[in-house]
Amino acid sequence: MSSSKPTGPRQVPPPPNSRAGNSYTRFIPREELQGFASWTPTTFGEGIEAAPVPPGVSRPQPEAPAEPPPEQVQALVAASRQEGYRDGYRDGLVALESFKQSFAQQMAAQVGQVVQGFDREMGALEQHMAASVARIATQLARQIVRSELATRADLVVQVAHDAINAVLMSAKQITVYVHPDDQPMIAQGAGELLAARGARLVGQPTIARGGCLIESDAGTVDARIESRWQQAVQALGTDVDWPLADGAAEA
């Protein structure tokens, strides 16, 4: 008959040369380990339930934090208000500065447009005033010339004299056309010059008093009063014409 062997842990003698008094240690085989599981940090505390509370026993509640004293509450409120005031004041200054810059830009743009419009209007007004002044001055000069021609008819002698001298010396067949009322004065005052140049003096009603028209084989010299007047007003930049009919009527 076979005798049963004990199934308890197998005793292993200590290793040789071990010091006396040391804790006894041995290697535990895997087959002797039962209900063993390796522990990891992620499994720590998992699956642990609070111990049940016996009937009739209340679970202790955590104590509520003590309220701060009124002085501390007032100090905290005052500090919060002061901080809010500072934040609001800072934000208000930033908003005000932004508004001032935006308002300044808008005002600068509007003022610039107003100034440009004013400059354009002033320029147009100055041009209009200059044109008006030049026109009025020209009209006044026309009245003065007409008055001079009416009171000093002998001025036509000098006009005829200057016009004949403007003709080339080599010109032939010279004819001087003047108003019939000016013909006697020119014949008397410039007779010698007409004879020296071999010029012929002819009365022409279409020639306004105070002027003359010279024709020759070398060209034409237009000394009529309306032609000289037109040259003068063109230099002034105006368009005031010489009234031929009025001048002839007044003559």
Topology summary:
Layout: H1 70-151, H2 155-165, E1 175-178, H3 183-189, H4 191-197, E2 200-203, E3 212-216, E4 219-223, H5 225-236, H6 244-250
Parallel strand pairs: 1-2
Antiparallel strand pairs: 1-3, 3-4
The CATH class of the largest domain: Alpha Beta
Strand order of the largest sheet: 2-1-3-4
Structural class: alpha+beta
* Intertermini distance: 183 Å
User: Which percent range fits the helix content?
Assistant: 40-55%
CATH architecture of the largest domain: 2-Layer Sandwich
Q: What does the overall shape look like?
A: rod-shaped
Q: What do we call the CATH homologous superfamily of the largest domain?
A: ATP synthase, E subunit, C-terminal
Mean pLDDT equals: 75
CATH level 3 topology of the largest domain:
hypothetical protein PF0899 fold
Biggest beta sheet summary: 4 strands, mixed
